[in-house]
Design a protein that fits this description.
- By secondary structure, the protein is α+β, with helices and mostly antiparallel strands.
- It contains 2 helices and 9 strands.
- The protein has helices at residues 19-33, 69-81, and strands spanning 12-16, 38-40, 43-46, 49-53, 61-65, 85-86, 91-92, 100-105, 111-116.
- Strands 5, 6, 7, 8 and 9 form a 5-stranded mixed beta sheet that branches.
- A hairpin with a 7-residue loop joins strand 7 and strand 8 (100-105).
- Helix 1 (19-33) runs antiparallel to helix 2 (69-81).
- The radius of gyration is 15 Å and the shape is globular.
- It starts with 11 loop residues before the first strand and ends in a 17-residue tail after the last strand.
- The relative contact order is 0.21.
Length: 133
């Protein structure tokens, strides 16, 4: 069995009802998973994720990759401390052997997950796009 990540999604946009509360939540969990972000007055962006304000707020499920079980635990703790609500604490899930995840609801009710798929090899750390300006 193979799972492929990073080939289909160009970007994900979330619309926040309360941009400041949503930024506080995402900055906390992004710091835990080691992803840099750009915090601007009207949006927050990080890699493929773009968050701005608008109505209605978005309602989706979004899963971040974690490097290990400890990162899943820290994600859950940081998200709760930053205003997220528990939607399933850290633990094994039956999706496949080794699937270890935690779920939080962000300030707008989006189901946000951190998942560690168990010991595995990555073909690359990330896909890098370059172009001439």
């Amino acid at each position: 069995m193979q799972l492929h990540r990073g080939r289909m999604i160009d970007h994900v946009q979330l619309r926040a009802g309360d941009l400041d509360a949503t930024k506080r939540f995402y900055k906390a969990v992004l710091e835990v998973i080691g992803v840099e972000y750009d915090d601007q007055a009207d949006h927050l962006s990080a890699d493929e994720l773009w968050i701005d304000a608008g109505e209605p707020a978005t309602h989706i499920h979004l899963a971040f990759q974690a490097k290990d079980r400890a990162m899943v635990q820290r994600f859950h703790e940081a998200g709760l401390a930053a205003g997220g609500r528990d939607n399933g604490g850290p633990g094994e899930r039956a999706y496949h052997p080794g699937y270890y995840a935690a779920f939080l609801l962000d300030p707008d009710g989006n189901n946000i997950e951190a998942v560690f798929h168990g010991p595995h090899e990555r073909s690359a750390q990330s896909v890098v796009l370059t172009w001439d300006e």
